[in-house]
Design a protein that fits this description.
Ubiquitin-like (UB roll); Rossmann fold
């Protein structure tokens, strides 16, 4: 038996390694030619210290308190030279990937579908040529064919499948948009780099509030796919805001999630004054059903910078400090980059 261990490095790179039963994370990483920090490998120096808040493991009792204190253990700190997983885990490594003689994984895939699901949104589907592991909420860089340019897009599909999907803003004159709308064909090959990002789903232990702006819905769809597949018993609410009516997409998918996940609900809103949508304004205007739970809530927010800044200001004004707050900004520029900026 083996377990999938996600190593999240300080620079946002994630590498997955397979850890055999009874094997330490440090040894599994070395076997994959990833040199995690290490001096002694005996639980004495503390050089290999990291953190794990997701997954089951055993640290044993062979390490020194000077290397890892009881207080650090209570905070989720681990020594990778002593950590023996008993399930899939996510380990935070407090150094850059380059310091461990590794970097982003390079993959290839085949375009299977390009769908203009609204005048402003393109759905791109790719089948990876081999396994491409990622955490729900992460993204990859996709190279625009016939150029050296890459664009960053969040997975909207569930982890564990080679069938990948992405929501891409259809930007007039955008490099990726122009290729997708004018040149892309089924069977085209694309290069992928990643996964990357810290906007992944943490353990589902308390109510969840999701806030999406435009194609910022994509990583939240991946999270919902994971929650549907693994079960979800906590209240989960999504507020999905867009500028114009045409920007609302994937409502059929959200309806299916609402049917399949008993604890999930969502509302949509449109900010344009010209819209006939029943809920006008921004996401912060429609928080009535948000499971804020006096701050005992995990918040996931993805959207353009003004929206993210507005939501952060809303929580400050309301005096609400969520248990955890994870957000990611993206900027659909004239180049159509969709680049992640936080």
């Amino acid at each position: 038996m083996s377990y999938n261990i996600a190593l999240n490095f300080e620079d946002g790179v994630t590498r997955f390694v397979s850890c055999n039963e009874g094997e330490t994370v440090l040894d599994a990483a070395y076997r994959a030619k990833i040199n995690l920090p290490m001096d002694c490998s005996d639980g004495v120096c503390g050089t290999c210290k990291g953190a794990c808040h997701q997954g089951e493991f055993d640290l044993g009792d062979e390490y020194l308190d000077e290397a890892l204190s009881e207080e650090e253990v209570e905070r989720g700190m681990v020594l990778t030279c002593q950590m023996v997983p008993s399930g899939d885990c996510v380990v935070e490594v407090p150094v850059a990937s380059s310091m461990c003689k590794t970097g982003n994984a390079k993959k290839t895939g085949t375009v299977t579908e390009v769908n203009l699901i609204s005048p402003t949104t393109i759905e791109l589907k790719i089948t990876a040529d081999d396994d491409l592991a990622f955490l729900p909420g992460q993204y990859v860089k996709i190279q625009v064919p016939d150029t050296e340019e890459t664009r960053s897009y969040s997975f909207s599909s569930k982890p564990g499948s080679r069938d990948l999907s992405f929501l891409i803003r259809n930007v007039s004159g955008g490099l990726m948009s122009s290729w997708l709308v004018g040149k892309a064909r089924t069977g085209d090959k694309v290069n992928l780099t990643g996964p990357m990002g810290s906007f992944y789903l943490r353990p589902v232990e308390r109510p969840i509030l999701m806030l999406a702006g435009g194609t910022g819905l994509a990583p939240l769809l991946a999270k919902l796919e994971h929650m549907k597949a693994n079960g979800c018993s906590v209240p989960t609410h999504l507020v999905y805001g867009v500028r114009n009516d045409d920007d609302l997409v994937c409502l059929d998918a959200l309806d299916r999630f609402a049917e399949d996940i008993d604890t999930f609900s969502y509302v949509t809103c449109v900010s344009s004054d010209e819209s006939d949508h029943p809920r006008k304004g921004y996401v912060t205007h429609h928080m009535d059903n948000a499971p804020l739970n006096e701050g005992d809530v995990d918040v996931y927010l993805c959207g353009p910078p003004p929206m993210v800044d507005s939501v952060l200001g809303y929580f400050r004004e309301q005096g609400i400090k969520p248990h955890s707050f994870h957000y990611e900004k993206f900027t659909p520029s004239e180049s159509g980059s969709g680049e992640k900026v936080a």
